[in-house]
Amino acid sequence: MEVLREVYEIIKQRIEEKPEGSYVAKLTTDDKKKAVNKICEKIGEEATELVLAAKDNNKDEVIYESADLIFHTMVLLAYLGIEFDELMEEFERRKK
Ligand SMILES: N=c1c2ncn([C@@H]3O[C@H](COP(=O)(O)OP(=O)(O)OP(=O)(O)O)[C@@H](O)[C@H]3O)c2ncn1[C@@H]1O[C@H](COP(=O)(O)O)[C@@H](O)[C@H]1O
């Protein structure tokens, strides 16, 4: 879990500083509507790839595509100004 928080902080930094060569910066350089479209498109692609990997029963691919999907979801949340802890609080609320 700690690594997710660390990556989230790096994503926030990339969105803020937009360093050259950054994938996150590339996804978020356009105006807000375009950037959200671009990120959501990647989320759609990665979700489809995960579903296909699961249907193929390919464990390695399922792990790889899940990481891609979670990463792009984190980029979207960070871009929308949501804090990692806000997501964690939602999971805490749901915990039974
Ligand atoms: N965890 C990730 C991560 N997971 C996936 N990806 C990128 O997400 C993309 C996945 O898209 P695809 O599977 O479609 O592969 P692709 O064809 O290469 O992608 P496109 O060129 O079509 O967008 C790839 O370009 C991967 O490099 C990631 N890029 C960055 N990170 C983390 O984000 C941090 C910031 O990265 P930068 O913004 O590049 O500095 C890094 O420190 C990493 O920890």
Automatic annotation (TrEMBL):
One of its GO terms (cellular component) is cytoplasm. Keywords: Amino-acid biosynthesis, ATP-binding, Cytoplasm, Histidine biosynthesis, Hydrolase, Nucleotide-binding. One of its GO terms (molecular function) is ATP binding. It catalyses: 1-(5-phospho-beta-D-ribosyl)-ATP + H2O = 1-(5-phospho-beta-D-ribosyl)-5'-AMP + diphosphate + H(+). It is found in: Cytoplasm. GO terms for biological process: L-histidine biosynthetic process. It is an enzyme of class 3 (hydrolase). Pathway: Amino-acid biosynthesis; L-histidine biosynthesis; L-histidine from 5-phospho-alpha-D-ribose 1-diphosphate: step 2/9. InterPro entries: HisE, PRib-ATP_PPHydrolase-like. Its main location: cytoplasm. Its EC number is 3.6.1.31. Belongs to the PRA-PH family. This is Phosphoribosyl-ATP pyrophosphatase. It comes from Methanotorris formicicus Mc-S-70.
